[in-house]
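Quick review question:
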């Protein structure tokens, strides 16, 4: 690995703007820090979604569009995330704390018929917002400074259809439209130079792909069920436009560039923005009482560029397990008996590696679903709360270890809409 790629990760003075999406220094590479993680309730179960069919009729599964046979109500969700990251590096003994809060999901879903269900949603997919400076002084006393900056985000709008072939087997299709802009720049200067050399990359994204899903659920006892699921996401069918500019200039007050001289400009179009991925899952549970499941996700690596230099995203995988427990959804005398308690954990072998060191991630998750009203559990509107405690990266090879505490909240309004009223 060239030193060019290591500098952003070992720099002692990196910082990012508070209250913005994307606080990780690892977001400097590729399309940034991927935020897509489905809804608050699924995230609280370690992210298991491929073989997760909600027992009640008020929830839509976007991750596996085939797993929605029980949806009978119109459901509208608004969700937000609060991320708290604690960074440490042995390089300069650095400790930095960063926070961000953002809207993480808006969705609406409803049944078109007893067999066909439809959902439309928005989520941020990835983001980058970093600023890193590295300085060194040569033996002759000349100071060299490199500044790395990046910002922007990619969002996704999804439309999902679910079709139930029979009571046990369902198929689904989700279209994913990605849009946004990403910007990276590396500025190099010397204390003896009047000009700054800047290499900037501007990416304009308008692309889409499709996700196919399948879900199978069979009663194995009177009130027990076995669930299997699988999803496959195709590679891109759209384009990412990238413009590279290598130039020299100097700044005047107000951060205005002056005396700009273009050294080199390039333009490219690429389809390798969002990689192919697939997921397999299995679960077992008791009707309206408890559920436990596990899941394996695989994402194909892609060749990409960072500031005009070749960069490889490795193949990655994620193993997750989790579930939920509901004491008694019809106990109207004890509110907490009608609360759904969720738990989970996951380990992710990441797609980044530096000097032979993988940037992996693991976390413990938990949460609750708090119903609004003393009504039947089959028509619950409520509040979802989630907590994620984990770690990413390592202190080895002067890299950065990221500990995080993420809080999530979602509001789910569910009722019978779009149905004709009958009068006597």
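Suggested answer, residue by residue:
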């Amino acid at each position: 690995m060239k030193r060019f790629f290591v500098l952003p990760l070992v720099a002692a003075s990196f910082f990012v703007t508070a209250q913005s999406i994307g606080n990780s220094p690892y977001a400097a590479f590729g399309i940034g820090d991927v935020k897509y993680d489905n809804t608050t309730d699924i995230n609280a179960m370690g992210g298991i979604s491929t073989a997760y069919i909600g027992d009640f009729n008020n929830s839509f599964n976007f991750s596996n569009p085939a797993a929605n046979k029980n949806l009978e109500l119109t459901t509208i969700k608004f969700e937000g995330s609060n991320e708290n990251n604690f960074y440490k590096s042995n390089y300069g003994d650095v400790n930095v704390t960063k926070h961000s809060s953002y809207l993480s999901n808006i969705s609406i879903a409803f049944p078109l018929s007893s067999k066909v269900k439809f959902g439309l949603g928005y989520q941020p997919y990835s983001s980058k917002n970093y600023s890193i400076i590295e300085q060194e002084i040569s033996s002759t006393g000349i100071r060299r400074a490199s500044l790395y900056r990046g910002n922007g985000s990619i969002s996704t709008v999804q439309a999902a259809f679910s079709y139930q072939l029979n009571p046990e087997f369902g198929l689904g299709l989700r279209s994913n439209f990605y849009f946004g802009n990403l910007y990276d720049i590396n500025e190099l200067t010397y204390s003896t130079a009047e000009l700054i050399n800047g290499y900037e990359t501007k990416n304009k994204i308008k692309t889409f792909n499709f996700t196919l899903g399948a879900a199978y659920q069979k009663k194995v006892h009177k009130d027990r069920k076995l669930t299997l699921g699988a999803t496959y996401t195709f590679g891109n069918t759209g384009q990412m436009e990238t413009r590279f500019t290598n130039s020299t200039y100097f700044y005047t007050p107000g951060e205005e560039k002056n005396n700009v001289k273009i050294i080199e400009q390039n333009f490219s179009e690429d389809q390798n923005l969002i990689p192919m991925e697939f997921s397999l899952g299995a679960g077992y549970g008791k009707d309206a009482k408890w559920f436990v499941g596990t899941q394996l996700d695989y994402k194909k690596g892609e060749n990409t560029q960072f500031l005009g230099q070749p960069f490889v995203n490795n193949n990655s995988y994620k193993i997750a397990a989790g579930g939920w427990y509901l004491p008694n959804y019809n106990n109207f005398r004890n509110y907490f008996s009608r609360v759904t308690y969720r738990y989970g954990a996951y380990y992710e072998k990441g797609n980044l590696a530096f000097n032979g060191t993988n940037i992996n991630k693991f976390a413990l998750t938990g949460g609750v679903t708090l119903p609004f009203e003393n009504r039947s559990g089959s028509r619950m509107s409520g509040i979802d709360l989630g907590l994620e405690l984990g770690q990413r990266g390592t202190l080895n090879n002067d890299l950065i270890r990221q500990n995080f505490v993420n809080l999530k909240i979602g509001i789910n309004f569910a009722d019978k809409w779009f149905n004709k009223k009958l009068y006597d």
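Why it works: The longest helix spans residues 3-10. The longest strand covers residues 196-219.
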